[in-house]
Structures are given as C-alpha cells and as structure tokens.
C-alpha cells in the first residue's frame, strides 16, 4: 500500500450517512403528514358543484346531489398518490370522532384512479367510515394543481374551505370548524318558494 492510498479517507461511512439522510428525507416527505393550516385561515366562499357524475365501488352511478344540504368533507385522491395515501388514516380518525356524529356531516373520498378496483383493493379490510366513490374527471369547482385536495362544503352549497396537499386532519380545530359549518342553515329550496298570485 502506498503512502497516498494510506492517507485516503474511508468513504464508506460518508456513503452510509448520505443514504441515511436520504432515507429520512423521503420518509418525512412521503409518509408523515404535515399538520396543515387552520381551516378557518383557509376560509373562502364560492359555489359548490353537485352535478358531478361518479360511480360507487360497485359501478353504480351516483352524484354529489345526494349530499346537497349537508356538510361535506370532500377529499379528492388516488391510490397512486403517496401523500393521498398517507393522510387517509387521519381522515378516518376524524370521521370517527364522537363529537361529529349526528351532525349531518358526510365524509366523501373521490378517487381519480383509472381502475376503481384498485380502490376496492386498497380499502379492503380497513373498515374506514368514509364513503368512497370513483370519478374520471373533476368539475372546475374542484380543479387544483395537484392531489390530495380537500374541500369543505356547507349545507348552503358553498365551498367554505379548501386545502391542497396532505395533512393530519384529526385535529381539534378541524372538528370545531366542521361543527360550526354544520350549524349553518341550508340554502332555501327554490321549488318551495311561494308562487305569486296571477294578476287579474
């Protein structure tokens, strides 16, 4: 062994260290949800879109119309999206909260997977309390630059909050925001508006 090679530093530990750091960067990026912003800080007020043709996981046609007049926690996701997958357990924990039971709040997760069977395979055995639906496109009201995307729909048919990106949804401030939203009145039914008498 020459003097030069003897003085050359051992790079093995440097490589191991870099691999370790890279592993934690990937883990924290793709598998640990961030806390996310306070929904009240993300408040907005724009019309929700209920005319969104979808299917349930048995292939039966459904629409968001069935949820009109309710508070809806609407999550747009896909099984091929790591951030979507990592936040799903926190959505399930939020949906199980006793304080939200009986409040007319629906948790709806709409998958954009090409094959709805992938969704069925993904949720099998998990016993999550959300409603899982499948869609091939997204109305303009819910278009975002990426997924997961989560929207809170009020009983009055308004999008009152929206967030793009994974989050830890099972938090007291989220529970409070959903409770307050559920207490707001629904939009009046136009079909029940009194008809003005015809002038004679």
TrEMBL record:
- Entry keyword Membrane: yes
Which segments constitute the Thioredoxin domain? Answer: 37-183
Matching entries from InterPro entries are given as: Redoxin, Thioredoxin-like_sf, Thioredoxin_CS, Thioredoxin_domain, Thioredoxin_ResA/DsbE_sf
- Give UniProt keywords alphabetically: Cytochrome c-type biogenesis, Disulfide bond, Membrane, Redox-active center, Transmembrane, Transmembrane helix
Where found in the cell?
Cell envelope
Under CDD domains, the record lists: TlpA_like_family
Chain intervals for the UniProt region annotation (Disordered): 180-200
Report the Pfam families cross-referenced here. Redoxin
GO CC annotations, alphabetized: cell envelope
Q: Which GO terms describe its molecular function?
A: oxidoreductase activity
Can you name this protein? Answer: Thiol-disulfide oxidoreductase ResA
PANTHER family given in the database record: THIOL:DISULFIDE INTERCHANGE PROTEIN DSBE
Q: In terms of domain of life, where is this protein from?
A: Bacteria
Instruction: Identify the main location.
Output: other
Q: Name one GO biological process term.
A: cytochrome complex assembly
**Membrane-traversing stretches:** 12-32
């Amino acid at each position: 062994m020459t003097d030069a090679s003897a003085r050359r530093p051992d790079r093995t530990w440097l490589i191991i260290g870099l691999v370790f750091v890279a592993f934690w960067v990937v883990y924290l990026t793709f598998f640990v949800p961030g806390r996310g912003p306070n929904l009240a800080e993300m408040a907005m007020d724009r019309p929700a879109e209920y005319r969104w043709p979808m299917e349930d996981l048995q292939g039966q046609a459904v629409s968001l119309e069935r949820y009109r007049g309710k508070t809806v926690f609407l999550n747009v996701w896909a099984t091929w999206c790591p951030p979507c997958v990592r936040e799903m357990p926190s959505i399930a924990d939020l949906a199980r909260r006793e304080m939200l039971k009986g409040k007319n709040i629906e948790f709806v997760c709409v998958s954009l997977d090409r094959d709805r069977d992938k969704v069925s395979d993904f949720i099998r055995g998990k016993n999550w309390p959300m409603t899982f639906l499948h869609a091939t496109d997204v109305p303009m009201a819910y278009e975002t630059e990426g997924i997961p995307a989560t929207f809170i729909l009020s009983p009055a048919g308004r999008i009152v909050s929206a967030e793009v990106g994974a989050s830890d949804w099972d938090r007291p401030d989220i529970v409070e925001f959903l409770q307050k939203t559920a207490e707001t009145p629904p939009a009046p039914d136009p079909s029940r508006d009194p008809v003005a008498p015809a002038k004679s």
